[in-house]
Design brief:
Elements lengths: L5 H15 L28 E3 L1 E2 L6 E7 L10 E9 L2 E9 L7 E6 L10 E8 L12 E7 L11 E7 L7 E8 L6 E8 L5 E7 L8 E7 L6 E7 L7 E9 L5 E8 L7 E8 L13 E2 L7 E3 L3 E5 L7 E5 L2 E3 L12 E5 L9 E5 L3 E2 L13 E4 L5 E9 L7 E9 L21
Keywords: Signal
Organism: Saccharopolyspora dendranthemae
Protein name: BNR repeat protein
């Protein structure tokens, strides 16, 4: 089906965009080049980003943020990861901030052979182990992404590859294949947590079941190398309904929360966002129960590509921060905060909220859905918990140009009033 090719198409469009930007192709056998230089402050290359700074040069997708909390002297550093493309190869670019998200500098790259020779890499995640798993101590960094998705569906054989860093992201080594799909279907968007039982648990989207256009799956590992107990985490009896793109956080009381999108379920909104809880990080209840739908206290409907973060808050379980691609009106159309807001829930014990819209540190105009614009953004609280670091993506200069990552820092609490969209003249450029 056409819908199953969207993420593979993302890889193709992304690579074309980088070539269009003037990147020179070099021999694949050449040594891996040094990470691309950090952009100069204020070097924003697109008219669509109203607020935000360019994080790196060289194309980016699926940005993720982690603050090191179990890494000794390195604690407090913020790492970002992106999936990018160069020399016919998809790979990960890791950047580091030592000033709480004010600036980022290149740190390392992960070049997986399974993403080379146009095979492609997509849909990655970044995670710091909070405790020892197998021979991996607390503080070990894990990166995982989908490899082998650049080929046509008839030839594609996707896998989710896991890499490990023991030196706070400076160097990386291959660890395991989390899942290997048969020829044709895709496995996408891994997410990690450590269960109450001490296993490394991973979630991913799977479109290989002939009974379901897409469903969420989960597996676990006692050592990060051997993955077992694959089971369905979320599915729907209606074939076209597509749950996916999970994000997981553990609350201070030991409860786990997960957000995810459910596409083709709501007759008005294409991809609504839902949330659910687990007491142990492995058992998430009935896989046919969609959970609790997230809607803001003003009726704003967050749509697509959700990620979640945990910040200190007025209650013992802190507060939840939600990032998403678009914001719809309760009866359709676009809400005033579309492209300019994230949401906060001051009481994670109540998944219904209220969820309040607050200004996003990075704000994007003309945000009506694409494989780049505000796609799969990421949030992380600052060290004092009063503000948030925000990374998201947008086209540079024009649709079809490079997809770049932009970042910003903004308040979470009382200083964050609901964002209002300022009137702008209509952009008549093709593709807007």
């Amino acid at each position: 089906m056409v819908v199953r090719k969207v993420r593979a198409l993302l890889v193709v469009l992304f690579s074309v965009a980088l070539v269009a930007a003037g990147f020179q192709q070099m021999a694949l056998s050449a040594p891996a080049p040094a990470p691309a230089p950090a952009p100069a402050p204020g070097d924003v290359g697109t008219q669509d980003v109203d607020e935000g700074e360019l994080l790196r040069v060289g194309g980016s997708s699926y940005p993720r943020l982690v603050r090191l909390e179990n890494s000794g002297d390195a604690n407090g550093r913020v790492l970002s990861s992106m999936t990018t493309y160069r020399d016919n190869a998809g790979f990960a670019a890791i950047s580091e901030s030592r000033d709480d998200g004010k600036t980022f500098q290149p740190l390392s790259e992960i070049h997986d052979p399974a993403g080379e020779n146009t095979k492609g890499m997509c849909c990655s995640t970044l995670y710091e182990l909070p405790q020892q798993v197998g021979d991996m101590p607390a503080g070990t960094l894990l990166w995982a992404g989908t490899a082998g998705i650049g080929a046509d569906e008839e030839e594609r054989q996707a896998s989710i590859r896991v890499w490990r860093s023991d030196d706070h992201g400076k160097t990386w080594s291959y660890l395991s294949d989390m899942v290997q799909a048969p020829v044709g279907p895709g496995v996408w968007e891994p997410e990690f947590t450590v269960s109450e039982q001490g296993d490394l648990v991973a979630f991913y989207s799977d479109d290989g079941d002939p009974e379901h256009d897409q469903k969420l799956m989960q597996v676990r590992s006692s050592d990060g190398r051997n993955w077992t107990d694959a089971k369905e985490m979320l599915k729907n009896d209606e074939f076209t309904v597509r749950p996916g793109m999970s994000g997981v956080r553990k609350l201070p009381d030991g409860t786990y929360v997960m957000v995810y999108e459910v596409c083709n379920y709501d007759p008005v909104h294409t991809c609504t966002i839902w949330i659910r809880k687990s007491s142990d990080g492995w058992d998430w209840g009935d896989p046919k129960d969609l959970g609790t739908e997230i809607v803001s206290d003003t009726g704003g409907q967050p749509l697509g590509t959700p990620t979640i973060a945990l910040a200190p808050g007025p209650k013992s379980n802190g507060r939840l921060l939600l990032a998403y691609q678009m914001l719809g009106g309760d009866n359709g159309g676009w809400a005033p905060g579309n492209g300019k807001t994230v949401m906060v829930n001051e009481n994670p014990d109540d998944l219904d909220g209220p969820w309040k819209e607050i200004p996003a540190p990075v704000q994007i105009s003309y945000n009506q859905g694409s494989v780049c614009r505000n796609f799969s953004p990421s949030l992380l609280p600052t060290s004092d918990g009063k503000s948030m670091i925000h990374v998201t993506t947008d086209f540079e200069h024009y649709i079809g140009g490079p997809c770049e990552a932009f970042y910003g820092v903004g308040p979470i609490g009382d200083d964050a009033a609901a964002a209002k969209s300022a009137p702008r003249p209509m952009d008549t450029r093709p593709g807007r």
